[in-house]
Amino acid sequence: MSEQIGDKRKLKDESEFPSVSIGDEGKVIQVLPKRPVIVPTQKPNLHYTPLKTGICYDVRMRYHAKIFTSYFEYIDPHPEDPRRIYRIYKILAENGLINDPSLTGVSDIGDLMLKIPVREATKEEILDVHTEEHMQFLESTEKMTREELLSKTEKGDSVYLNNDSYISARLSCGGAIEACKAVVEGRVKNALAIVRPPGHHAEPQAAGGFCLFSNVSVAAKSILKTYPESVRKILIVDWDIHHGNGTQKAFYEDDNVLYISLHRFELGKFYPGFPEGNYDKVGDGKGKGFNCNITWPVKGVGDVEYIWAFEQIVIPMAREFRPDLVIVSSGFDAAHGDTIGQCHVTPNCYGYMTHMLKSLARGNLCVVLEGGYNLDSISNSALAVAKILIGEPPDEIPESDRDPKPGVLEMINKVIRVQSKYWKCFRRKFGNFGGEYENAIESQIPKMFPLQDAIRNAQLSHYYDDFGMISLSLPNLNLPKNSIICSSNFFKAKSLCVLLHDTPEVWGNRDIITGIIDPSTSIIFDSSLKFINWAIERETAVIDINIPRSAFEADNYSSNLLSQDVMISLWDNHFKYIESLEKLCFIGIGEATSGIVHLLGKRDTRTVTKAAINFVGSSSLKPIVPSLDESLGDWYFKNSLVFTDHFHGCWSENDKKPRKKYGRVLRCDTDGIHNIIEERFEEATDFILDAFDEWSDTEDE
Amino acid sequence: MSEQIGDKRKLKDESEFPSVSIGDEGKVIQVLPKRPVIVPTQKPNLHYTPLKTGICYDVRMRYHAKIFTSYFEYIDPHPEDPRRIYRIYKILAENGLINDPSLTGVSDIGDLMLKIPVREATKEEILDVHTEEHMQFLESTEKMTREELLSKTEKGDSVYLNNDSYISARLSCGGAIEACKAVVEGRVKNALAIVRPPGHHAEPQAAGGFCLFSNVSVAAKSILKTYPESVRKILIVDWDIHHGNGTQKAFYEDDNVLYISLHRFELGKFYPGFPEGNYDKVGDGKGKGFNCNITWPVKGVGDVEYIWAFEQIVIPMAREFRPDLVIVSSGFDAAHGDTIGQCHVTPNCYGYMTHMLKSLARGNLCVVLEGGYNLDSISNSALAVAKILIGEPPDEIPESDRDPKPGVLEMINKVIRVQSKYWKCFRRKFGNFGGEYENAIESQIPKMFPLQDAIRNAQLSHYYDDFGMISLSLPNLNLPKNSIICSSNFFKAKSLCVLLHDTPEVWGNRDIITGIIDPSTSIIFDSSLKFINWAIERETAVIDINIPRSAFEADNYSSNLLSQDVMISLWDNHFKYIESLEKLCFIGIGEATSGIVHLLGKRDTRTVTKAAINFVGSSSLKPIVPSLDESLGDWYFKNSLVFTDHFHGCWSENDKKPRKKYGRVLRCDTDGIHNIIEERFEEATDFILDAFDEWSDTEDE
Q1: Rounded CA gap, B161 and A585, in Å?
Q2: Pair type for strands B609-617 and B541-547
């Protein structure tokens, strides 16, 4: 980009001229310029011939198949079925992308695609990733008896073997290598390797998950070795629904290969289920930051989630990495219709993701088949990918404007936060602090203090000014100052409203560059105030309890415990000694509701407690555990209202209502504590008035 | 997507079979399945023929040219030069994309592109956008005399005219229509209209900015009218460096056309300079939310900024809009080398943006030339776009990993915030509140209170506990409670440190879905504390002043004024009456530094003031205005240190140091108030000690 700005020299290139018009008085005439000859400096009779898309396919890879031990296996075959590659090849032919009416894998396949001959990967190539023992074991399967094969199949980790497994696996691996080579050498524009058995679960020392050799790893290592100058960095994107543990392992300490996998994880419950598949595994040694796991927390994700992950993580990271070659570990088991993956990625979305990846590495892209078990889904998906590879635009994404599934945005955010230590592109999202922020909080530098303390102090001063409320302390509990604020006359109250809540929400702006929150445009949203106002108006005493959360503690374990201790302590030391008390109601907000449900199960408060209203929002439902009297469960269901967010997890899977032990759970139309309180305030307070038997009184007033 | 999950029926399609191996005891044999005949259900001898890319070009559009009035105009031609379209056509031929050795615009141009014949737009078509008067005026230019033409040229808004202008403009307009038609009718895959004069500045009633008819608007209206069923929504992306005021106006109240423009705005100083080009103009009536201006705050933007804007705004918005056709108003004057646009977009980036747009509307994309005046830049850029259109992958983006220019991220963020009222995709960034948030703050609902008040109260309680500091009030000023906190003995201090700062920063997490800030993981970063500790240790009295900002006020005008009033009032009513006072220093942080500089210019404080340290961070430099004594300027320069962020705007354009009136301005290595204070704390305090003549004393102690 050394072009000089404003250089006018080229404008006067004599072979070019402006078509000018000039006139004398009264008449405008067209005047030919001095040198009218149109002779372009470079004779433009060149032909631009776009490269074809390479394709790898060899019928011999269909020989690896499960040995039948029953007729049932014939009618309900093993999912990693030899027809997988045949069906993909067939759909490409049926749609005219390859010209092979016999479907036998001929050499000349027409104008759009170029056949890349498949060969067996050499032992040397394979041994760059796998151990000698693993190699020898697979070699030995060529000569094994049926019994030996069946016994090895049984002992392995989801792998079957026959006498052709070894040759098929070497062809599959060799196909991946040759496809990548053809791309790197510029013989094809990009490539699709229709190979099996798949590879990404095969670890250096062992087969696993239908995989014998780690095809993509072997190919990547081979390319880095063979073309050390032109290919220094390889990006592997693994969109198989399973984590590619084998590929991850092969490059975990390598900074020349960036491995990004999108897969179901579900706290390690989904195959392969190793902790290595979690999002916090970012590589090691000089490979730190060159491993990225995007872990779906639930099944059923689809186009929206994949596109969001690509836009937010894969593409920015990849562009910063600047790969020389992109290899896709292309399982199609996240596809709609795959009963193993149970997700809903459409063919169009596979195409769209391919389109996005084409923008990297000057288009050097090699798509290698991994899993995917619904023959219709994988062939339609592969067709969509192939169309993009030959240069067609992606088709429309259905439902692209629905919201991502609950939990997915948070997960993406967690991945970004973890990776922001290593990738500049993410710091724009989280400010310049990157990982320093957590350290700062944990080390408790004296010049910092927690926001939640400041908020609670501010609340006290408001409640004191407006309602004369005062601070109450519970000496035996480790509660921050001013956690409990109550009406000064609460000890002689007739009716009492107990408010138990998390630290109030703050709404505000966050600077996109520095990550700093601007206090001047931020507000504290104090949900209690609305209830306190309501109670005070009705001459009901109020006790307002703030349960601070512990920073960075998973599941808020200790703040849940704290809210339980506080409620028990308040009951045992205060409430039950208020002789005047006739009517008690609880209002819980957020995680803190745990304390209310705990108290109602542990103590029999039914003589005075008339109602319990819990706004749980998005936090988990708390079951009552009736430790004294079984009937408490029924009583709780009758006397409670539990409001959840619209998108609370308890509503997601089926139409079943949550069980009675959670109270009378109601689904709000909105999400977020503020919104659901706004939506249900009337309903909640009417319920209390009804329970207090004050409904008609109030109406009459 | 009605495919049934787990439907096994199709797996048993009889034309397919698994290649299975089955064995009897001791031997594994390959057994042919029952029906080995490979007869695909559909005979795969179809040929998939990708459509060509359409191209519009006609030499007659070169007849519109500026009438020469001097030889100077011949050697330095008008930038909207007839050669613009010729050079683009030529480079496509030179690179073999079109086959036309004579460069005359032949009909058969080879395998990759298809010639779309250009015709004159009809009056009816043009009148759907333009007024009858405008039409008649341009028609009349065909018969005007040279003098008339020159006079009209002079009177117009940057438009020249000759006797061929009318026909050229109608061809240009017709070319745009025909290119769009060919795409919509599926005759071509996509299209490039190499047309001139450009169109996007032409408003319904008037020509402007080299534009006569609004080509893209006329084309869009015509398509919507002609194909009401197949094209209901059109996206127009205008990446010309100027705002397309004409196009915006044509569709400002239309929800069928989403107009997104990326352009230099610079507070309206850049052409066309109408306030209509600002980012807050989002459309009107039912068109509200269907107009989006992405306004570069500075010149010199390039690939990184355009890609960021595309990824953050254009693509998400477009995907939610789901257009049936995408038209690009493709000026190439943001290209590197264009002296009018003064920006640095590379050809590869134009290609990349085209690649991204190809993913919309099933690839229905029509690129129509607008501005762009460096003949080399526009031809290279157009070539890169054309290569993407025919299906090639984009080339690499140079420097894609640099940071966006200062101000650009903020600007993008402002656009997103404004548009988040209308587009769901942005709410994921700003929480569910969308525009409700600002309303909530402005209406001051009683259940909310400002975060900055809570923070200041918390500071007071800390300073009181640790240093015995107390609150001081200035009765005549409208300062929030506790804004001024001082050492209790400050009125008999010998040395005094005056700290003046904005509300302290908060660091914290913001929930990606709800936009709520989690107080439990947020901290207040109190920069004052470090200085107070330092001063108290040296038995220097301290006065700490917090200047709250006004929410949502541009340029912090009133908080600047407030900080000035506070300092004058403190000086006039307090400091100058402290008889013991010998040494005074000021430490300013953020916008509040304004008050210090103001005081030092308005009052002669030199008998006691020894040093003024201002950490301005990213806020603007404040010039001293010496109202009493000219020498104050020099004095301020000698006795001050002013620390800026590394990326402060004052350093961006050239190597010149800021002028002396701003004090001794120093550039930090880092950014953000917290970081620059950490970086320069020693330097700042040493400077004060030196000025206080306490350096050696301190050393000796």
Answers
A1: 82
A2: unpaired
DSSP string, B306-324: HHHHIIIIIHHHHHHH--S
- Could you tell me which of A251, A293, A254 has the C-alpha nearest to residue A275? A293
Closest-CA distance of chain B to residue A627, Å = 32
Smallest CA-to-CA distance from A147 within A159, A161, A157, A133 is with: A161
- Distance CA(A189)–CA(A361), nearest Å, equals 12
Say what the pLDDT of residue A417 is.
Answer: 79
Q: Containing H/E element for B389? A: helix B375-390
C-alpha A451, offset from chain centre: 29
| Residues of B in Cβ contact (< 8 Å) with A171 | none
CA distance B423 to chain A (A): 10
Taking an 8 Å cut-off on Cβ atoms, the answer to whether B44 and A94 are in contact is: yes
CA distance B146 to B514: 65
DSSP one-letter string for B340-388: TT--BB-HHHHHHHHHHHHTSGGG-EEEEE-----HHHHHHHHHHHHHH
Residue B444 confidence (pLDDT) above 50: no
CB contact under 8 A, A507 and B516: yes
Asked if the interface predicted TM-score (ipTM) of this complex is over 0.85, the answer is: no
> Does residue A512 carry a pLDDT above 60?
no
- A432-454 pLDDT, tens per residue? 444 445 555 444 445 566 788 88
Mutual orientation of helices B347-358 and A347-358 as an angle, nearest 10°?
180
- Residues of B taking part in catalysis: 201
Chain A touched by B65 (CB under 8 Å): yes
Contact assessment for residue B258 and residue B423, using Cβ atoms and an 8 Å cutoff: no
Judged by a CB distance cut-off of 8 A, whether residue A167 touches chain B is no
pLDDT tens track for A449-477: 678 888 888 888 888 888 899 999 888 88
Does A519 sit within 8 Å of B506, measured CB to CB? Answer: yes
**Could you tell me the CA-to-CA distances from A532 to A468, A503, A544, B412 in Å, in that order?**
12, 16, 8, 41
Which residues 103-122 in chain B show a CB within 8 A of chain A?
103-104, 110-112
Contact (CB<8Å) B103/A17: no
This prediction has a pTM of: 0.75
Which of A46, A303, A447, A462 to probe the B interface (max B CBs under 10 A)? A447
What's the pLDDT band for A35 if we cut at 50, 70, 90?
very low
For the stretch B474-489, pLDDT in tens is 888 878 888 999 998 8
Nearest-CA distance A503 → chain B (Å): 7
What are A457's two structure tokens? 């102090």
H or E segment at B700? helix B695-700
Structure tokens at B190: 């996509």
Residue B96 CA to residue A349 CA, distance in Å, equals 33
Nearest-by-Cβ selection for A671 from B111, B362, B432: B432
R_g (Cα) of chain A, nearest Å: 34
Taking Cα atoms as reference points, which of A170, A164, A257, A185 lies closest to residue A215? A170
CB-based contacts of A260, cutoff 8 Å, min separation 6: A235, A236, A237, A238, A292, A294, A313, A314, A317, A318
Identify whether A462 is a catalytic site residue: no
Burial of A229: CB neighbours in 10 Å, binned 0-12, 13-18, 19+: exposed
Residues contacting B154, CB < 8 A, separation 6+: none
Domains with residue ranges and CATH for chain A = 61-84+119-421 (3.40.800.20), 451-700 (3.40.50)
pLDDT digits (tens, 9 = 90+) for A241-274: 999 999 999 999 999 999 999 999 988 899 999 9
Which pLDDT score, from 0 to 100, does residue A98 have?
Answer: 94
